[in-house]
Known about the structure:
Layout (H helix, E strand, L loop, with lengths): L1 H20 L4 H35 L2 H7 L4 H32 L1 H16 L7 H32 L9 H24 L4 H10 L1 H14 L5 H22 L1
Amino acid sequence: MLKEIVISIQSYLKAHRFISEHKLWRWILIPGLVYAILFATGMYYFGKSANGFIEYVTSLLGIQDFVGRWEDSWIGFFFTFSALVMWMILMFFYFSLFKFFWLIVGSPVFAYLSEKTASIIEGRDFPFSMRQLLSDIARGIRVALRNSFWQTFYTLGLLLLSLFPLIGWTTPILCILIECYYYGFSMIDYSCERRRMSVASSIEYVGRHKGLAIGNGIVFYLMHAIIGIGWILAPSYAVVAATISMYETES
């Protein structure tokens, strides 16, 4: 799996050269700008609502008064840090919902980019079919909804675990890995669909190549650390890199 993670990460560098060489920037920048604006707006309001949710939960459970009495002790530190961990998990959860919303909205662009990348790599044209494109879009939406359900299920479980000091502190790392896996899964599935693999076969394929999915998701998230330009490039780079990584694995 480690080898596949490395292949997937390196595929982003190859994706950048690929996009530049074949002048695919219009398919990168226009949807990227829309994504960046929606992402910045959403995360601002998500952050405010997360703070309100934590205050509500701590007040409902009486934790706030308890922590106040032990504010200067290790107990107070543990619960305060646990609240921070909970906030991080909520932000991951919100980001997850936004990400899958974008996968649904952006599925026409992602399906086209994946097909265009494969067409150039293989040196042949895939005949355009509106029926096939609509099928690819519908497939992308189904997979996004399926992955959203399972990721939400696991994230809610981790959110409950985060309430416990010490043990709950590991949950943000687990959330990140789950996020990376399911986002990479959606990117890889565009290539699986083009190869006429059923959803079940795609699930089996990604299950055997977890490293490709995790590596793709890792770089996608790291690109968000580059405020502005990283947000613009991350979504489309991810689908091109995922397509390239599959060919790299098979070569």
